[in-house]
Protein 1
Amino acid sequence: MSTEDKQLYTVSIYTENNIGLLNRISAIFQRRHINIESLNTSPSEIEGVSKFTIVVNMDEVNIKKILGQIEKQVEVIKAYYHNLDQIIYQISGLFKIKSELLFEEPHIQNIIKESNARIVTVNKAFFILEKSGKKEEIVEMYNQLSKFGIMQYTRSGLIAVTKEEMKISSLLESYNN
Amino acid sequence: MEIQTIKSQGKTNKATERISGSEAVVRCLIAEGVDILYGYPGGAIMPVYDELYKYHGKIHHVLTRHEQGATHAAQGYARISGKVGVAIATSGPGATNLITGIADAQIDSTPMVCITGQVASHLLGSDAFQETDIVGISTPVTKWNCQITKAADIPKVMAKAFYIARSGRPGPVLVDITKDAQFEEFDFLYEKCTHVRSYNPLPTTDIIKVKEAANLINAAKKPLIVWGQGVILGKAEEELKAVLEKAGIPAAWTILGASAIPTSHPLNVGMVGMHGNYAPNVLTNECDLLIAIGMRFDDRVTGSLSTYAKQAKVIHFEIDPAEIDKNVKSDVAVLGDAKKSLEELLPFLEEKSHTDWHQKFKDLYQIEYDKVIKNDLYPTKEGLTMAEVLKEINSQSEGKAAIVTDVGQHQMVACRYADFNVSKSNITSGGLGTMGFGLPAAIGAKMAAPDREVISISGDGGYQMTIQELGTIFQQKAAVKVVVLNNDFLGMVRQWQQLFFDKRYASTEMVNPNFVAIAEGYYIKARKVTKREELAEAVAEMMQSKEAYFLEVCVEKEDNVFPMIPTGASVSDIRLE
């Protein structure tokens, strides 16, 4: 597979809430040497149904094969793949910074204002900034703040909803009949 | 965890019975129609064994000599009966010893349920004695697996396990049960599982796709069918026969598909793949339509994918959607059960004979016969060939025996030369290539089909990987006929060393024991043949034996199996020498 054809895809997997399923799904990627860029699990819009959102850098031919392997797992209800244009997504970043910098470095206040970041908490020792958006925006903010020193930094996995309708409820209905 | 089955227990008014988890396990097995299981006891599974003792007479436990033997015996049982094979073991090493058989069953789509004991739930994760994370270890090689820590979960998990193992594309399921769950008492009620909401084992056959397939078949001038085990698993032997006879299509098989159509059938053109027949391999790259039925385009079948059947359109009949376009891109994919799909296909097919096309297969067969087959079956040199042993077995069994093979040269020779006149007659480890599979698998096969002649054929290498199962044969009085084709080498590896590693025979020469004495040590009648003149009589003695029989045949040490597609070469570059 040529690298030109590769792009970021999200794989959205609707599953039963099962304790071993994460292992089963990650093994499918691991066995084929596919690096998972990010992974998020959460409840879905349907009660009792979980949702995995996995981001991978792959070409379309191979992502279709991976999807087949994922859907083959007994407790997977349905899996979809989308490129980033087909979804609305968010990533969250958390930054822990020394409180004194807020007063010593006025530029930090500008960064917070211009980036629409939110101050989650402030105490004498440190304050926490939260920024949600695209990965590039969070990376940009990291680059700006790192000049002043960041005590801790972490970035969440990507979460997404699709522009098109996801017909899981009707699918589940049809399985029951 | 939540177990999703359509019927939830507890809400019904059916009477329950208060029993232990371990008794429930045995009652579940009986309810699923299991009358035989293979295993090995140990600490964490002792409560279940205690119940097996009490239920003796209703369910027969076969003590193998190693847990791996238990899985292969369960596989042999499943492959010949079409039922789910069951293996049982204790925690820790008992459980890990099952893994090879589970992986084998996964890649060869064999329905199997494995039950393992586990340390008590309060000890999980504490590195307790004989604790191992068998659910974690078995995840990549099972169709489904589950750990039970509460007795009340046993009936629904067991029901789900059997349903998943046997439905759709079959496969192995592992159920791990903690010792406290085995001791715990609960209100037992068993209901079979008929549905799991996230699992759709049988895709509906799309009649539009069936018609598209029929149109391609009717328009084809040089069609070739390659069928696999899906035909046997789907019980579609008659439907396949009807299709190829009506449309006059030459049909070849993968090793797991062998025996679905009798060897002698005029449209059966032999085996495809690395050591398959010359004609179907070469003509794969000349056909204008390749019709794959219940097969998965394994690399040992296709050789180099970039040169595989590129000139042909491809139809793929397949039950598992993940196999479609996985290795070979299809023009028409017909999802569903082979029996139903072929049944629906038949009326749309035009009657054809394709005489000129058949002649090509006959011409190429003649080339293979002159260069390979003649020398294999009627050797002029002194040493015995493996093929002449098969020829003798064919003539004395009338091609009706179930041939259970191990892995290596003898396996390829058996597949090439055995006459298969009855379906489910070629029990072998195809996908995983598990040496040591043959002998225990033959025990399971014989127990599933006591009226059939079951002949285990192994090489001297693989035979010694599970040779301890002679003890099981002896204890169970299983009338398995055991043939070892002994060339004092790991023959297939030696062949590759000769062809591709300048005859550097690294660790392939075997200094072998007295095999006859070992068999006799287990009180099994045994004989050794070294000369051609003795062969027919020795095979006759073996076939006439009512009990187990061991026959060692010393064959030519450095014979090679041909034809051969070297790794990475195209099917049409198959070598005859």
Protein 2
Amino acid sequence: MFLAIREMKHAKTRYLLISLIMVLIAFLVLFVTGLAQGLSYANASSIQNMKADYLILQQDADHRLNRSMITEDTWKQIQQASSDQQGVELNPLSVKMTSISRVDDTKKIDATFFGIDPEGSLAPVIKEGRLMAAGADHEAVADKTFADKGLKLGDMIEDQASGQQYELVGFTEGQSYSHTPVILMSFKGLEATEAGRPATVGSAAYNAVALSGSKTIADQITNKVQGIEIVNKDTALKGIPGYQEEQGSLLMMIVFLFIIAAFVLAVFFYVITIQKMNQFGVLKAIGAKNSYLARSLVLQVLTLSLVCLAISILLTYGVAMVLPDSMPFQLNTSVVAGCAVLFIVVSLLGSLLSLFRVVKVDAIEAIGRAM
Amino acid sequence: MSTVMNRATDHLNKQIDNRENRAAKLAGARGSAANTKLLLQNISKVYGDGDTSVKVLDQISLEVKAGEFVAIVGPSGAGKSTFLSIAGALLSPTSGQIWIGDQEISQLPEKKLNQIRLDKIGFVFQSANLIPYLSVIDQLILIGELAGKSRKESHAKAVQLLRELGLGHRLKHYPDSLSGGERQRVSIARAWMNDPEIILADEPTASLDSERGRAVVEMLADEVKQRGKAAVMVTHDHRMLDLCDRIVYIEDGKLSEREM
């Protein structure tokens, strides 16, 4: 629009400076968001990528997978409770956090063992090698990060706690739990780590059951089976040790950045508006409507934030490209779009104060007053 | 210099003509509405209420006809600015009626007043009050923009007006690179841009030395005559009064007309 564009062209330095600040803030918002997402993925990709809608956990387990115990009895009840329904898939899951080392090496690596049914839908997508055989109790598939740590197909790994040895038969990717890479094996393989311990009555068979199905089915199972709790994947993510704390602090940073962005813009436009009070008086005296002046201001704010956003998005993707692979950074289009929309909304909110002042200016200011 | 001289002589001639016209009008069709550009009837303006109320304007009436250039003179605080604000549709009077052209405006809501200012009134403010980030040509085009006219039409009109006022070589300049007199001329050109019924000038010479001030007021007087419009100028500057057709004194909220 006529006034908005000409003013920005005329006062280039002033608008360039504020743009620079906005670019930096928007960049930081996007970068921290990417980092939060990347960390979340590195922390818990095994849950995020799990082919399930809900997780059935033991009641009072604080939504924590490794605290929850599902006994053989409960597992049977769960199966019965949903047997009359179509489109339900139940897959039990066992989790054990431990550390491992290569048999011929003493260096320990933290890892999480997942016991699964290799024929069920929790079976990982194999990137290299093959899936463990259904009956094999000493074969395992590991997350690809183990390959970066020097493990190869065919290597033997040893569980530090039990001394059990497994052969690496395949690599998968996107499998991590509580910042440790996951090693998947059959239930039989995982049970071997418990060998030698006294078996308690009704001991836990599994830690959780992954459920694919609708909300109604989940409700039905909750009603029929005692002592369980059904949570969606988001809640299960929060139950991973450290997940909520990590995401919470990053989220706080992002929220603060948005608030800072709003205030920086608000103050900038407010100061400029106050400087221009006399001009607004003149403009109103010569017949400019409030709506015209308001549109002009909103257009300036929009132009500024759109240009700054575009630059910072390019900048963020540019920086993401040169980041090392080990850096947990992940930014998908929908998150960027969400941030962008929020940023624009926040900018417009920041301009409200100035809009209010512009509307309040009385045209009579122009009369009887020198510049 | 010679052009200024010519203009001054021209102007004197016109002024004489005009007085004769006025005499003729006074004798003949007094109050013919078509010729009246600004009419104020029994205008009062009271600020505050109750015991603390201040009557700034007290039952004033004024008629300004096409081709007339009226000066309003008076001491500070006499109500000049209030008078101009009311005549300029910036302020509503407490009582009384105002006609601009053939429209009664004293009861209009603020939004309508905005439109009246845009369509019928041209303002020349103290110290020009140009928009600092608009070039000379854009100062004028802005008026067209506000009125929703096409950019091309506004541009042509702006160029023509600026050439008439001797600013043809300054079209792309910004206000800060113009002299005070040039700024005030741009301001006059801007006031003509919407083809108003009446020009209201608020001490247009306040920031100019007397020579430049005089040139500006002459220019304003010329334009009023040429276009058959009207102008009211509030001023402190008694040296400009000989350029006006009538002088109205304002004191304690009352108007009185004196012979020159």
